[in-house]
Design brief:
Elements: H1 3-27, E1 30-31, H2 34-54, H3 62-82, E2 84-87, E3 94-97, H4 100-127, H5 131-160
Length: 165
């Protein structure tokens, strides 16, 4: 097997089982902790900001970041809305379970990333692609996608929680 084929096949063979088990876990109801819905996104935004501050992007690259931000905010909000929330009938704890559409969104993101990585790896010189820009844009996209998803779930979950006396 040539190295190029191996560089494409190996990540797929590693990611497929992980994705399968993650998807199964997403579809099962899980206890939801409201504070984690705000802590994780805050940490992601902080880490993304720190990474970008270490090597700030150039001003002409701003449109790429704007496109990534808009897509991430829209996708994160939609993905968060697809998460089913309910109160456990016996003890009243908040439960969440992903939907099949949410699982498909996650799978599409992984496939898109693998496709971009393979395509740009082969044609980077011909396309005049800046690897640092692509990495920075993907950091912004990922951080915002998961942060907005968590925020949307948090807002809906807070409305569902019963008032404490």
């Amino acid at each position: 097997m040539d190295p190029h084929t191996l560089s494409i096949a190996l990540p797929i063979l590693i990611i497929l089982p992980i994705l399968y088990f993650r998807m199964n876990k997403m579809l099962k109801p899980q206890r939801l902790k409201l504070r984690n819905l705000l802590i994780r996104p805050a940490l992601m935004i902080f880490a993304a900001g720190a990474l970008l501050a270490a090597s700030p992007p150039q001003l002409p690259d701003a449109p790429w970041f704007a496109v990534a931000a808009v897509l991430a905010i829209g996708g994160g909000w939609y993905w968060g809305k697809l998460t089913r929330l309910h109160l456990h009938p016996e003890d009243g704890t908040l439960m969440s379970s992903g939907s099949m559409a949410g699982v498909i969104v996650l799978a599409l993101l992984v496939v898109l990333r693998l496709g971009l990585r393979a395509g740009i790896g082969l044609e980077a010189a011909a396309l005049h692609v800046n690897a640092a820009l692509l990495t920075d844009v993907s950091i912004v996209f990922t951080a915002l996608l998961f942060s907005v998803r968590g925020l949307e779930i948090f807002l809906r979950a807070r409305r569902m929680m019963p008032e404490k006396p």
